[in-house]
Amino acid sequence: MDQTTVQLLCPECTKEWQITPNDLPTPASMFHCPNCHASRRLSEFMRTDRDLQTLKQLG
């Protein structure tokens, strides 16, 4: 079985990565980029609206 992932994109440094929704806090929580340490709401790191919807459904 494939594990669902969401794509993240840092709005500051443009680092891209994938992670499972279970490894993330809620979309309204503060999140920190592992590359540049920018702090924003997690929802602002979602690469697409579909990634945000996946996070909300599975997270």
UniProtKB/TrEMBL annotation:
<feature type="domain" description="DUF7836">
    <location>
        <begin position="1"/>
        <end position="58"/>
    </location>
</feature>
<protein>
    <recommendedName>
        <fullName>DUF7836 domain-containing protein</fullName>
    </recommendedName>
</protein>
<dbReference type="Pfam" id="PF25206">
    <property type="entry name" value="DUF7836"/>
</dbReference>
<dbReference type="InterPro" id="IPR057158">
    <property type="entry name" value="DUF7836"/>
</dbReference>
